[in-house]
Structures are given as C-alpha cells and as structure tokens.
Amino acid sequence: CLLELQLFHLDFNQIAVLPTQMGKLTKLEELCLQNNSILILPLQVGNLTKLRSLTLDVSEMVSPTPEVCAHGTRAIIYYLRSIGEGQSTGAVDLRSQGLTAFPIEIFAISSLTALHLDDNHLVSLPPSLERLTDLTELTLTRLRLTSLPYVLGACTGLTSLRIDASRRFRNPPYEVVMKGTAAVLDYLRRM
User: Fold this and answer.
1) Which of 89, 110, 142 is the last residue in one of the domains?
2) pLDDT digits over 27-53, tens only?
3) 109 and 15 part of one domain
C-alpha cells in the first residue's frame, strides 16, 4: 500500500508537478526528487512530518524559495505547514526562515489576520501588501527594513504592528515609530 511508503525515489522522472496527494504519505521518511522540473512543492508536503530527507534541485524553486530550501528538510516542512495551516487558522508564522523576499503564498490566504515574519532577511515589503485587508497583527522585528510601504496604511484592520524602532528607520521616521501602531498607520495614510 502506498500509504505505508517510507522511501520514495523519483529522481530523473521529468516530473514538473507533484500531486497534492503526496501529503497523504505521512509515513514517508525519505523523498528524492532531483533532476526533475519541479518549481513548486504543494502545501500538502507540509503534512509529511516524519520526512527526514528531502532532496530536490533548489536553485530554480519558486515555492518554497531557495533560501528556505537551503535550511533543509525541517525548514521546508515547517514553511509549507505554516502556509497550509494559515489557510484554515488565518495566522502564519514564518519567523527565522531565511526569507529574503516576501512569500507570495501569503496572498492566497483569503482571511489572513496574523502574520509573523520576524528574524528574516527582508529589506522591503511589496506594495501588494494592501491586499491583506483582514490583517490585524503584523510582526516585522529583527529584519533589515528601513521603511514601510505607504500602502500598509490601507490595512485598516491592523491593530498590532511590531517593528524595530531604530534610528536607521526612514519611513516612517523613528519618532513616529516610537509612538506605536496607530501613529505609524496614521502617518502612512497621510502620505
């Protein structure tokens, strides 16, 4: 029975898309996908919590990104599982994932209320952030940000915004950041 599989070697099979049913192979411990054309791992791979070895060609990966993949199998599973759980809970925790770009999968979560991106390598946030209209909590501490996009002010439900208040922050200025979420959002809305 396939559901009992522990090792699955699919190298050199010209696979472009993994079926979402892969997530049902919960006893899988080793999955080899090298030398295929896979760019996106289905979120259901996040259900493979016993997976200890996942080998794939990461340089062209779109989701998860090569940065996440570089942190190994556990990081990939955590990333996919966090996004997948976010679809049902409305909360996504992607702290310490080595992210250098905003995860595009976030925009597929229709009712996202909480997003935690602390301890990553993000230097900017996308203007499309304004699409996260249900967002109430956003944490952006220990990142490389020096400014917030003005469109963040369009997230009218945002009540908790955590960012590092440092003198290097340019927009909004340090003095505004020190006054808290309401002041930051008011500043961004007036720009």
Assistant:
1) 89
2) 999 999 999 999 999 999 999 999 999
3) no
pLDDT per position as a tens digit, 160-185: 999 987 777 889 998 999 999 999 99
Question: What Rg, from alpha-carbon coordinates, does the chain have?
Answer: 19
Output the pTM of the full model: 0.89
Cα–Cα distance between 12 and 126 in angstroms, integer?
Answer: 36
Q: Mean pLDDT over all residues of the chain?
A: 93
CATH number of 11's domain: 3.80.10.10
- What CA–CA distances, in Å, run from 79 to 11, 92, 99, 185? 23, 9, 10, 29
Query: Residue type for 98, please?
Result: G
Same domain, 185 and 95: yes
In sequence order, which residues have a C-beta less than 8 Å from that of residue 99 and are 6 or more positions away? 65, 67, 68, 117, 120, 121, 122
